[in-house]
């Protein structure tokens, strides 16, 4: 299917979207596939990856299941060997991120290390591997899924906030280092989106009232509303955009 605008055409590009069997990652994978990319569907559940990839293929899109735990170095290395054999990666969307809302006294060193391992170290390591393949082709796009929690903070969320602020710093640092290799690195910082981890919160009238006061758009976001920004940053259209962290939050961080 031809893309309406050439700069957004992702044909002949392999795109790995981590955590793409659900939520924001799944919506991004669907849109990137519609723009022509061969999307590699990731999550820890092989069954779910197979199902999501099969559904996309049934719709005439290019998709392959690539299950692995982003925190498992050996599995990640094997996955990148598979991608190299398939022609190399052009687009990496580092989407996986765990949340653990506990107050400071309840966080052990192991808890902290475990969260940082998934939310910060793994995207860093996957970006290193992706950059090796992108450098060889002189072109690449890395899009990190951060959070408004990397920009502003709330009580009881210190580990996640630290990790997401780290993602923002990593985005700028990788952009600075990889720019001359033709690799642009950006982040998006979602606000409140209706995904499975927020299922209970989405039913909470007090939180809805808070969002109605705090966001310019006065509502939750839907996963499909993050994907277009990811598509832009993953495309050739973003040729002069790098090192940025873009809030996609209905105006939560821009409005008071
Ligand atoms: N939703 C929001 O409102 C919101 C707001 C700000 C930021 N974010 C960020 O957006 C990203 C996606 O959030 P979401 O709400 O869409 O999450 P989600 O609905 O929970 O999606 C999780 C996806 O990640 C996969 N996954 C989890 N741990 C994994 C691991 N270690 N290795 C590989 N895959 C793994 C899951 O599959 P398996 O379980 O099979 O592994 C699933 O595909 C996160 O980085 C989150 O911090 C979300």
TrEMBL record:
Name any one Pfam family assigned in the record.
Answer: adh_short_C2
Q: Which residues cross the membrane?
A: none
> What Gene3D superfamilies is this protein classified in?
NAD(P)-binding Rossmann-like Domain (3.40.50.720)
Q: Which InterPro entries match?
A: NAD(P)-bd_dom_sf, Sc_DH/Rdtase_CS, SDR, SDR_fam
Which family does the record assign?
Belongs to the short-chain dehydrogenases/reductases (SDR) family.
**What's this protein's name?**
Gluconate 5-dehydrogenase
Which species is this record about? Shimia sagamensis
């Amino acid at each position: 299917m031809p893309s309406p605008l050439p700069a957004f055409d992702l044909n002949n590009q392999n795109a790995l979207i981590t955590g793409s069997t659900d939520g924001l990652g799944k919506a991004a994978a669907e849109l990137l596939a519609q723009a022509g990319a061969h999307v590699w569907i990731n999550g820890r559940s092989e069954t779910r990856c197979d199902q999501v990839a099969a559904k996309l293929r049934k719709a005439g899109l290019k998709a392959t299941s690539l299950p692995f735990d982003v925190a498992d170095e050996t599995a990640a290395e094997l996955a990148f060997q598979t991608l190299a054999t398939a022609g190399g990666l052009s687009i990496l969307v580092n989407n996986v991120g765990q949340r653990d809302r506990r107050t400071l006294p309840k966080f052990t060193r192991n808890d902290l290390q475990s969260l940082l391992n998934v939310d910060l170290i793994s995207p860093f390591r996957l970006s290193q591997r992706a950059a090796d393949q992108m450098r060889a082709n002189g072109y690449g796009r890395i899009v990190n899924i951060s959070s408004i929690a990397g920009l502003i903070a709330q009580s009881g969320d210190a580990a996640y906030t630290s990790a997401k602020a780290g993602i923002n710093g990593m985005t700028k640092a990788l952009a600075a280092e990889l720019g001359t290799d033709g690799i642009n690195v950006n982040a998006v910082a979602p606000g409140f989106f209706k995904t499975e981890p927020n299922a209970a919160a989405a039913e909470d009238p007090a939180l809805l009232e808070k969002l109605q006061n705090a966001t310019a758009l006065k509502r939750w976001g839907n996963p499909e509303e993050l994907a277009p920004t990811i598509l832009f940053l993953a495309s050739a259209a973003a040729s002069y955009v790098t090192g940025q962290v873009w809030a996609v939050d209905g105006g939560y961080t821009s409005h008071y």
